[in-house]
Task: structure prediction
Amino acid sequence: MRPLLWWLLLVLGLYAYREHQIWLAKTEIDFSITLNGQVTDATATLDRQPVVAGQNISLGSHTFSVRHPKAESWSTNFFVWYGRHDLGEIKLKRSMGTLNVQASPPASTITITGPEYSTTLHDSAGTNLTVPTDAYEIRAEYPQWSQSTNVTVAGQMTGSCVFSPQFGALHLTSNHDRATYGLVFPDGQSADSGNLPAVVAGLKK
Result:
């Protein structure tokens, strides 16, 4: 009986191994990643190795992480047994940062323009805003002068922009009656015109 018993154990072992291989081939991870309700490309890793939906994975404990340049990181730990392991829809949260804008003296308008957020401030000395992380163009406009600059806002960090132009006034007189003037910037743009005498204020020094 002993040879028969060994043969039976061998058959059971081969059968168990075959079933293990079959079920292991069916053991996979599935997931979808969205940002603001839209399916998005993101870097997904399983135990720090790249992974894609539908990929076969090993049995045991795993750490699954998702990273996206415009979203907060997401991670979870789970245990895998035979079969499909569906993590479902992973909804990434848009990463936010702070944008600090200062203007001294206050600007007639401050325009903030980004891919997902834009606003215009009037007669403003600046503001603090919580905005999506991204690159922004900020433009300050004064009656006789304007300037634009680019600021990048990173996650949990503050992007800063300061406008501090020095202005002066131009006093114009003439010893001729009914004299007029025309003021032109170096780029050829007309700045101001009128009758003399006159004071043109708000000119950049």
